[in-house]
C-alpha cells in the first residue's frame, strides 16, 4: 500500500438516518463485481455496489433496529438480525423477504456458510442461543410480520425448522456468529467475553478463548486464503488462525478503545475504529505502530470491513454514514 492512499478522499454513502451497526461484503463475482450490505438502527438495511458505494436497494420489513446484515458469498441472499425479535432472509435481486425467522428476543448476529445460494443460516442474540435454521424447507408464511411473538416465546411462529447448538453454554448475549471456512465450525463471540469454536458434528465447543473485555466486532479476513479471525475487545485486537480453532496468532494492545478491527493479511496491516473518537486508524501488523489516521466521520466507528479484493475498506459510524476508503496506490473504482 503506497503513501498515495492517504491523499484519496473517501467516498461517503448517505441514505441511512440512524447509526450504522454492521457492514458486510460479498465475495467477488464473475464480472469482478461485489456488493456491500449495511445494517442500521433505522430498521432498513441497504444493498450497495461494493466498488462505488452506489445505492441499489433497501430491504423493507423490519420493525426494529437491525444489528447485523450479511450477504451470501454469491450475493444472491441477504440475512439480517433485528431488535424486532426476528431474523429475515432476503432475495437481493427482488428485495423480497423469503423467510422471517421468529426468535424470543433481540437477534444480534446472523451468518451464512460460504457456499452459493446457502440453505442454512445461523443466528445468535439476547436469547443466548446459537441456532441453525434450515432454509430448504418450504415455509407457508415467509413474509409474515416480524413483530415479536408471545412474551414467553413458546414455540416459533415461523415454520422454518431450526435446532440449537450448545444449550445453556453462552453466559451472555451473542454478539457475532461466523461460519468458518471449515463448514463444520461455527464461531461465536458473546458478552460473557468468550470466543467459542463450535464443532457442528459434536455440537460442542472445539475450543474456547477468554477475552479481556467484551467483544466488539468479530470477523473473518476474507482476502487471504487462510482467512484469519479478527476480534476487537477493550483496547486490544486479537488475531486467530482461520484453520486451527482457538489458536491465537497475535494480540495487539493499543492506547485506544477498539470497537471494530479488520485485517489485510497480504499487506500486513489492520484497520480499527473505536467508540472513543471519530477516527479510523491503520496499523502495521508486525511492528504494531500506527501508520495513518483517517478523519471524516462525525461519530464513533462501530464496524469496518475490507472489500474482497482488498483494494478498499468500508467503515460505518454512529453518524449514519458509510465511508469507502481507498487501500491501494493504483487508480481504482471512482478514484482516478
Question: Which key terms come to mind for this protein?
Answer:
336 residues, 4-stranded antiparallel β-sheet, single chain, 0% helix, disordered N terminus
What can you tell me about this protein's structure?
- By secondary structure, this protein is mainly β.
- Residues 1-5 and 140-158 have low confidence and may be disordered.
- Strands 1-28-27-26 form a four-stranded antiparallel β-sheet, with no helix packed on it. A four-stranded antiparallel β-sheet has the order 2-3-4-5, with no helix packed on it. Strands 6-7-8-9 form a four-stranded antiparallel β-sheet, with no helix packed on it.
- Helix content is 0%, strand content 45%.
Termini, distance in Å?
16 Å
Overall radius of gyration: 19 Å
Number of strands: 28
How large a portion of the residues is in β-strands, by DSSP E?
35-45%
- The overall average pLDDT, rounded, is 91
Strand order of the main beta sheet, please? 1-28-27-26
One letter per element, helices H and strands E, the order comes to: EEEEEEEEEEEEEEEEEEEEEEEEEEEE
The dominant shape is: globular
Counting DSSP H or I runs of 4 or more residues, the number of helices is: 0
